[in-house]
User: What shape does this take?
Amino acid sequence: MSDPFDQSALARRAEALVAAARAAGADSADAVAVRGVSLSAQVRLAELEELDRAEGDDLGLRVLIGRRQAVVSTSDPDEAGFKALAERAVAMAREAPEDPYARIAGPDELGADFPELDLVDHGQPDADRLIARAQAAEAAARDVAGVTNSGGASASWGLGGMVVATSAGFLGSYLGSHYSVSCQAIAGKGTGMERDYAFSSALHDEDLDSPEEVGRLAGSRAVRRLGPRKIDTARMPVIFDPRVARSLVDHVAAAASGAAIARGTSFLKDHLGQRILPAGIRILDDPLRRRGLRSRPFDGEGIATPPLDLVDDGVLKSWLLDLATAAELGLVTTGHARRGVRSAPSPGPTNLALMPGTLSARDMIRETGRGLYVTDLIGHGVSLVTGDYSRGASGFLVENGDLGGPVSEITLAGNLSEMLLGLAAADDLEWRYGTNAPTLRVEAMTVAGR
Assistant: This one.
């Protein structure tokens, strides 16, 4: 691979693919070129278990003949093969069924003057540095009293770039780096063992939590889970720790996807402009956040995306739309097209967050009285069609306004429509993931135990 920070060759190939498609008879076309390089180290008990390096360039071409479209891809960067690839795509499009909503963005829809988002750390750590970082995280976890073993630790670095070129004249590119460190700790012995984890990820090395912090957190979380008990089935308030609370925000975003709305497979399909959360709660999607894990200056169709209030003051304000789903719903794209090399665009979120409330997490627990504080969710028992929610969980019992002992082998059950309307947000939001949330409390759920 050439210099991973140099996008010029990638841009030239994307433009060449579009030109080849037009020469082969396509009415319109767009191309994406994706570059990725990564290095990761996995250790356990201070010994290197795995060292992995990967790199590659991938290209995808979408062609349209009228409203018929086809997508082809290749990992061969040799432009000599682009003519045959484009001819194959055009032949496929001629045989494809008509899609009345398929099109590329017109010149008046395309973005320009994109902001600088500071997505790239130009450092390139070597293997020794990543190994040392993983070893430091594991050592810190094993130093926590009560930790008896390690599930391993890892550290990684990566760099990814994307170019989008269209026959309407758009050519845009961006790069993003990525660093991470993670650790899994085991506490206790025999059948009483418990495990937990911690990790940190960031675009810039300087924003990453230290490996020692990550290790200590993994160790303390594992020890805190020792000696769990079962509880009787009851209906009670449920508080979601931030690392699991974000899953509730993901459910809202998935249900608000234009693709789900167009198919009629979302429990929110009839709720645009209606209250789905309590007054004062806001869910923001911000693709322009500096150093955001999912930040990007334009979407997969070359359209600029301003920050979007998905929910404002508890009211569902918008769907997440690309060109096709917007056309099907009689709306205008919100610029949320995501794009891979092997598929047509589809809508999805960027940096998503449920914004903080005014109550501290400690006060939220205190005023709850008796309830459940959830730190881990298991399974995927959520229906976005009906909103029915059923997931395994573990965490801590809230008793007399304080966190009590650990509990496990429980199931949470409810319906997302009711859960969301009974939601309260604490003030402890941190932008640590692609989807972010503060501590959240659902007013009442069925907690199934013994």
Notes: The first strand starts at residue 28 and ends at 44.
